[in-house]
Design brief:
It contains twelve helices and 16 strands. The chain has about 400 residues and is an alpha/beta fold. Strands 9-8-10-11-12-15-16 form a seven-stranded mixed sheet, with helices on both faces. Strands 2-1-3-4-7 form a five-stranded parallel sheet, sandwiched between helices. It has a two-stranded antiparallel ribbon with strand order 5-6.
């Protein structure tokens, strides 16, 4: 009786250990039949229109990967979390994806400030993240020492020093304008950074900034700043802000009778810019990451695939989320296992994979992709049209 009881206890203990071990393996991606990728995007709030494109692009890539057999014989499963476009929500959202959902790699955010807010968490919990469309240089830097890389943060897109330089060169050399004004959100890293990088190159080109106005978050009335800018009579007005802010700025500028050329960055590449800006958005130039009417066959093929699935035109957020997910997929394959540290190590060495905007190679020294082109587009009618593409040498 005593012997049989001991045997039962041993069997029960063995079963318990087996269950616990299975849980641990599932948590680190080793024993599960799925590989979970955490995606923290702004699906509601100020950047919701952009975040939905990121989600669609991610889903398209995961569908392609799973249709080709998945990764390491396992199905890839996305876990989407909404940051509500709020920086203060990001740390908890990222922590949940890692600790509760057991994501082995992350994608996000859209806004540079929100990606920067995720930096300390991914570094502490040692899970790699890739920002599809956050262009501020600080996104991939160590939050405790911005002179060093955050070993767990990567990026799929170009950075703002390049975008700002291309924007300035386009104003100076393509449009032949020498007098510019700036209007931007002083509370956001992306807006401040892009304004600064534009200014540095424009002045180096011989141009003059004849007015510089700023505003805080939640601003809806831009007419006081626009009135001052109008009095300075610039030839070009640079508005490195998000689509929602710029839609209002363009509509109010039209109401004030401002006739200067407006230019913005990739954060305005969303149909909502035109919807909000109305006639004021006509003719605005944008620097961005991708254009569906880029004559490159790979860009065209991605646009067709996206249209077929979502019945709308893709934008840069959709394209670069697709590319970022493909980078994670390649890293998992190179690592040979779905474990965060191994994926991180492999992600540093992703090289020459084919993506819609060209070939993707991660620079291990910067955690940024090498040689990503900057595309210039313009609002015409109810859409965006391709103007030119600048590939860094």
């Amino acid at each position: 009786m005593g012997f049989r009881g001991s045997s039962s206890l041993k069997a029960a203990a063995f079963a318990l250990v087996t269950v616990m071990l299975a849980g641990v393996l599932s948590g680190c991606g080793g024993g599960s039949s799925e590989i979970k990728i955490g995606c923290f995007y702004p699906l509601t709030g100020a950047n919701a229109a952009k975040g939905q494109f990121n989600k669609n692009g991610t889903q398209l890539a995961i569908d392609d990967i799973n249709a080709a057999g998945g990764l390491l014989g396992k199905k890839v499963v996305p876990v989407y979390e909404d940051t509500q476009s709020k920086k203060e929500n990001v740390p908890n959202v990222v922590r949940k994806l890692i600790e509760q959902d057991k994501a082995v790699a992350l994608m996000g955010e859209v806004a540079s400030s929100n990606s920067i807010a995720a930096g300390p968490v991914v570094k502490q919990l040692k899970v790699p993240a890739i920002a599809p469309t956050s262009t501020n240089p600080k996104v991939v830097m160590d939050p405790e020492d911005v002179t060093k890389l955050n070993p767990f943060y990567f990026r799929a897109c170009f950075i703002d020093p390049l975008q700002g330089a291309v924007l300035a060169n386009f104003v100076s050399k393509n449009l032949n304008k020498t007098k510019a004004a700036l209007l931007y959100n002083i509370a956001q890293d992306y807006n401040k950074g892009l304004a600064q990088f534009f200014k540095e190159r424009f002045q180096k080109n011989g141009g003059t900034i004849i007015a510089e106005e700023t505003y805080p978050d939640q601003t809806q009335d831009f007419k006081p700043q626009l009135t001052k800018i109008k009095e300075a009579n610039p030839e070009a007005i640079i508005i490195p802000n998000t689509y929602a802010e710029n839609g209002l700025i363009l509509r109010q500028a039209k109401e004030l009778g401002i006739n200067a050329i407006f230019l913005a960055g990739d954060a305005s590449h969303a149909p909502k810019l035109i919807e909000i800006g109305g006639d004021g958005a006509e003719g605005v130039y944008l620097t961005t990451l991708y254009a569906p009417d880029d004559p490159d066959p790979k860009a065209q093929a991605f646009a067709k695939k996206y249209r077929d699935k979502f019945k709308e035109e893709p934008n840069s957020n959709a394209c670069f989320s697709y590319e970022a997910m493909m980078v994670i997929g390649e890293a998992v394959k190179k690592a040979g296992k779905a474990e965060p540290q191994a994926i991180r190590d492999a992600m540093e060495n992703v090289k020459d994979i084919e993506v819609p905007s060209g070939k993707f190679t991660m620079d291990p020294k910067t955690h940024n992709p090498l040689n990503k082109p900057v595309v210039v587009i313009q609002v015409k009618g109810n859409g965006f049209v391709f103007v030119t593409k600048v590939t860094p040498e």
